[in-house]
Amino acid sequence: MSEAQFVWPVRVYWEDTDAGGVVYYANYLKFMERARSEWLRGLGIEQTDLAEQDGLVFVVRHVEVDYLKPARFDDALDVVCSLAELNKASLAMAQRIERAGEPLVTARVKIACVTREQFRPAKIPVHIQQRLGC
Question: What is a single Pfam family found in this protein's UniProt entry (predicted)?
């Protein structure tokens, strides 16, 4: 959908690795979560404001991940995000984690907009859609 990409740098620490010295698979999801949060912040969308002012939160609904190559301790990685799809109550992100331009992990993450209290699907507010570039 969008050709604009957001890149968030990440350094791999010991705490990110498993007994084999490579990044533990679930930690890639943490890297992607942080990058999505910073992408939103960079667009001027503060998730705390969305929750407090609009009564809405974004939640991960579905994730598809391909682990292509391992990252190791002290690697400098880039987490790349782009908006792949925007619907009334959800959006999908295309994400990848790279080392020196080489893809290590690719993912598609579907994010739902839900009410803060009942966690029921809700329409993404127009002011948020506008900031997303739509």
Answer: 4HBT_2
Q: Is-catalytic flag, 16?
A: no
| Comparison of pLDDT for 66 and 19, the residue scoring more | 66
Rounded Cα gap, residues 121 and 116, in angstroms: 10
Does domain 6-131 fall under CATH 3.40.50.150? My reply is: no
Domain extents for the chain?
6-131
What are the DSSP E strand ranges found in 1-134?
A: 6-11, 56-67, 76-86, 90-99, 102-115
Which of 18, 49, 66, 74 is catalytic? The answer is 18
- 118: Cβ contacts below 8 Å, ≥ 6 apart: none
**Distance between CA atoms of residues 84 and 81, nearest Å:** 9
